[in-house]
Fold each of these.
Amino acid sequence: SHPFDDAVHLAWQGGHAFAGHTHPAWANMVGPYGGITAAVAVKALMQHPECLGEPLALTINYPVAVASGPFELRAVPVRTNRSTQHWTLELVQQHQGEPQVMMTATAVTALRRDTWRANDLPMPAVRPPEEATPIVLFETVEWVRRYDMRLVQGAIPDVLDDRGQDSLTQLWLRDQPARPLDLPSLAAMTDAFYPRVWLRRARLVPAGTVSLTIYR
């Protein structure tokens, strides 16, 4: 099995509850990597027996770092329309015998219908991945080993002098070892970029993901 699939494995408990467990392959500096928590939320939506369509939007909030160990994820459909469905989600862990909310989220799933569409933001013109530089963001952090990252531009500055000019990073990214891209893995990738403030300021300051919104 692939470590990603192991990490997002959920067991339906009936109703709106799923049981899961953090995975050491996705460990971050404190708790698991935020992207894998987002992926678990998407997996719960897709696995829920009442889900309408596919996930289109997710806003996930991290009030506190998820602890290593078991968790319960609750995904509740709060409104179902003809084409769209609106959800709330919570990740809960036991702490000193009391349930603690570690993550909250809202989501929209929908049926894809044949309608007008346009793309206002085309893919940037960049060199192909085989010509881009492989990088490892942090040698001591486990989750970065789960990705093959190929940098195009926007590395962490070598000179930390508070003189950063922009916050743009472009890189190619895929699971390591490789696996087919699906919606949970795409959700996980959205948190893979290091904090923008490090590049914009050219200074490594304390930073973490507090809220993340993903649209598809």
Amino acid sequence: MTARKIIGSGFTLVELLIVIALLGVLAAAVLAAINPLEQANRARDTRMKSDASQMLAAHDRYFVTQDKFTWVTNGDVTNNDAAYGFINGTTAGSGICGVDCTTDGLLITNNELKTEFRNRDFIKNGATATEALYIGKASGASSSVYGCWVPKSKSERTKATRTLTLGSPALGTAADCATRTYADLTTSCVICLPQ
């Protein structure tokens, strides 16, 4: 019998280091493509759209049962046809919060929204203008009630085409939304429901 020489069939250290480096480059490319911050901003914008939709539906239900809007019940305006300038969702007239956001507003006390709605991000971060959800109504019986917010994700900012001013019932249009800085409400465009 002849003795055979067994040759090692493992990987060398250099080969392993090359493979690890290639995996690192691929992982960096995947992270750049996914962009976790943009994904988080998209999720936040989706939550804001959902919250605005729920809030507007609650206002519709409240109007049907009470025959007036929460800001009329609250005494902010005298009748349903009156314009109601845009306010932060943490303001008592919005119907979510009472005098402050430690007490329930009219939409919650009348069971149009659940109490947990006061735990939403836009209530907790509502003092920051770019984190808030706004509500307002133009004058006239057939005018819509709008829920608006400042988008965070780049993809949603391309859809933002309106501006708003707190206290004003008018929604402006902005041709320069692509150049806005989104630092505060005056330099931001908003997305509104209904669109």
